[in-house]
Amino acid sequence: MEDKIVEIARFYEPEAAQMIESLLKSEGIKCYLRNEYTSQVMYPANMGGIRIELLESEVPHAMEILEANGYEFPKEDEEAEQIQVVSGWTRHVPFLRHLPLEKQIIVLFILVAVFLALVVYFGSLVSSN
């Protein structure tokens, strides 16, 4: 049976993900940081986070190491609550309601970027007159 690669944690700060990666590797567990560079380029609008992934067979040992070093895993309810907060205010925007959460966030990011570009553009027009 082939071992799958699974996500055990997700961070939005590169330093935190790198510390956990170093800890696990120092204990002989091979792990990988997915989206590490993408999240640094997109910071602070890091939408997916940096994912720590490893072989499924290594998960129990990794969890023991992390718990022994004081890392607390968020409860599933906490994560669901955070998702509800983000999706709660997007349901008020008609064209976003039916999109998946990831696409809602991307569209909002683009809209905010366009708005800021327009503010800068029109602000430069006003200040040059």
UniProtKB/TrEMBL annotation:
Its keywords, alphabetically, are: Membrane, Transmembrane, Transmembrane helix
* InterPro entries, per database record: DUF2007, N-reg_PII-like_a/b
Q: Where is the DUF2007 domain?
A: 6-68
Q: Which residues form the signal peptide?
A: none
What protein is this chain from? DUF2007 domain-containing protein
Top-level taxon of the source organism:
Bacteria
The answer on whether this UniProt entry bears the keyword Glycoprotein reads no
Transmembrane segments annotated in the record for this chain: 105-126
Q: Which residues form a coiled coil?
A: none
